[in-house]
Design a protein that fits this description.
The chain has two domains: 51 residues; 196 residues, Mog1/PsbP, alpha/beta/alpha sandwich (Protein Transport Mog1p, Chain A). It contains five helices and eleven strands. It is globular.
Length: 261
């Protein structure tokens, strides 16, 4: 009796085609499942368009704002917090070999520039403010209503670095007999000012014999010849006063030119 179709043990062609189709369908289903679960290609080791480099760069460059710690009740003056001020974009001041002195920044509306040649410093004050004191090391100014005071100082008394100057100035402030400041609490922050490493202080205090709280913010930036420049804004610690103090401090820092001829 003659056999039929493909010989003994053979598989009909239609059946083979069906088996191949089944295998292809199974493999496709497995690949689809892997992609759905892991969301990644099987080659390359990472998901497409998911680089973390940008996030790492952002985290490395992010710095807290000094506004975040304004009004802090931290009583320690030995710690520091990395902080940058909105005015930190001010460029290097003074001239050095191969560089030229920086040009003065544009004075904002409502302010005017002051040149204190004897102190080798230039700065700006709001319109209407008047000078209350000037000597060999400092120039003091006051708002018309007396709500805010500004002082620009150039000194060598406490050392040539911002840290030494800040520590020396704080020690003087704590001597109530000389400074008339009492209940003093200070927090120091590292920053950049005029293109140099600097410090700024938040100081909460009250005048001796008075209970009204006050706040002083003060930046220390090293200059040439061992001199350290100081810029401070002092005000009564009311909500409105503190908000205005922050604005004044940021603008005054942006306008400060040290080692100015």
């Amino acid at each position: 009796m003659s056999g039929s179709g493909g010989g003994a043990g053979g598989t009909p062609p239609g059946r083979r085609a069906g088996e191949v189709a089944a295998w292809v369908s199974a493999i496709t289903a497995v690949l689809g499942l892997l992609l759905a679960v892991f969301g990644v290609p099987l080659v390359g080791g990472s998901a497409a368009n998911r680089s973390v480099a940008g996030r790492a760069d952002t985290a490395a460059s992010a710095e807290p704002s000094p506004d975040a710690s304004a009004g802090s009740s931290d009583s320690s003056d030995s710690g520091s917090a990395d902080a940058s001020s909105p005015s930190d974009s001010s460029g290097p001041s003074g001239s050095s070999a191969g560089t030229s002195a920086p040009s003065a920044p544009v004075v904002p509306r409502g302010w005017r520039r002051v040149q204190e040649a004897g102190l080798t410093v230039a700065f700006a004050v709001p319109d209407g403010w008047t000078r209350t004191r000037r000597n060999d090391i400092q120039s003091n100014w006051a708002a018309p209503d007396g709500a805010h005071e500004m002082s620009v100082k150039r000194d060598t008394s406490y050392g040539a670095t911002s840290g030494a100057a800040a520590s020396g100035q704080l020690a003087w402030y704590r001597d109530t007999a000389r400074s008339s400041m009492a209940g003093l609490r200070a927090v120091r922050h590292t920053t950049r000012q005029n293109g140099r490493d600097a410090l700024w202080l938040e100081i909460d205090y009250h005048w001796a014999g008075q209970s009204g709280p006050r706040k002083r913010v003060e930046v220390f930036v090293p200059g040439t010849a061992g001199r350290v420049y100081q810029l401070l804004i002092d005000t009564a610690a009311t909500p409105a006063g503190l908000a205005e103090q922050q604005r004044l401090f940021a603008t005054a820092r942006a306008q400060l030119l040290i080692d100015a001829s």
